[in-house]
Amino acid sequence: MKILLVDDHSLITAALRVLLLDIDPNANVFTAADAAGAERLLDQHPDADLMLLDLGIPGASGTSVLETLVARAPDLKILVLSGVQDQRSVMRVLQLGAAGFVPKSMASETLVSAIKFVLSGGVYIPADLLDTPVDYESLTALGSIM
């Protein structure tokens, strides 16, 4: 398994690397800390299985980096990491082609489940988001959801 990890906080990157290697000890994890680095990772690893992407990285504003990465690698599963969790933000990243949205406050066991679900082809949405009114027609169009 090949995973691209894009976050500008080294503590988060180190913790996620450990978590990813717990999922698959043979995983290859490559990191970048900004938007330009994320694009370089795509160039260097076009066969990546998954990208974990923090939208708040240097060199990008809002969802611009996600839009760029999805346009460059439409088949890559991108799981967005964010410190902000609101229905509007989640819906926006899903509409742009992300394979899911994970709040950084999520428990590590739940994050592992989300990663496995996305790798299996699902679209991950935080459970507490599903407790609020959601446009399920839009979500259904995205495929299977968790």
Q: What's a concise summary of this model?
A:
The chain has helices spanning 10-23, 35-44, 64-72, 87-95, 108-119, 136-140, and strands at residues 2-6, 28-32, 50-54, 77-82, 100-103. The chain is an alpha/beta fold and 146 residues long.
Q: Over the alpha carbons, how many angstroms does the gyration radius reach?
A: 14 Å
Helix count from the secondary structure assignment: 6
Structural class: alpha/beta
Give the overall shape: globular
- Strand-residue proportion: 15-25%
Helix content: 40-55%
Give a verbal description of the structure.
The chain has 146 residues and is an alpha/beta fold. The protein contains six helices and five strands. Strand 1, helix 1 and strand 2 (28-32) form a beta-alpha-beta unit. The two termini are 22 Å apart. The chain has a five-stranded parallel sheet with strand order 2-1-3-4-5, sandwiched between helices. Helix content is 40%, strand content 17%. The protein is globular, with a radius of gyration of 14 Å.
